[in-house]
Amino acid sequence: QPVRVQERLYVYGRARRPCLRCGTPIRLADQDDRPTYWCPRCQSGPTP
């Protein structure tokens, strides 16, 4: 049975919903009129 594309997406389109990996709410920000979704726990920024 084929898997729908949306079932494979871990963060895209899931703003404020739990990350499928860790359960942290997914964040959303607009950059140049394009949505950017990320999990702040799984996708932390660079280490200073």
What can be said about this structure in brief?
The protein is mainly β and 48 residues long.
Give your account of this protein's structure:
GO terms for molecular function: DNA binding; DNA-(apurinic or apyrimidinic site) endonuclease activity; hydrolase activity, hydrolyzing N-glycosyl compounds; zinc ion binding. The protein is built from 1 helix and 2 strands, in the order H-E-E. With 48 residues, it is mainly beta. It has one domain. Strand 1 and strand 2 form a beta hairpin. The longest helix has 4 residues. The chain starts with a helix and ends in a 10-residue tail after the last strand.
Structural class: mainly beta
How are the strands of the largest sheet arranged?
Answer: 1-2
Q: Report the sheet with the most strands, covering strand number, pairing sense and barrel closure.
A: 2 strands, antiparallel
Beta-strand content = 15-25%
Count of all domains: 1
Instruction: Determine the mean pLDDT.
Output: 85
Spans of at least 5 consecutive residues whose pLDDT stays below 50 are none
- The dominant shape is globular
Head-to-tail CA distance between termini: 45 Å
Number of extended strands: 2
Q: What is the count of helical runs?
A: 1
Protein name: DNA glycosylase
Keywords: Metal-binding, Zinc, Zinc-finger
Domain FPG-type: 10-44
Pfam families: zf-FPG_IleRS
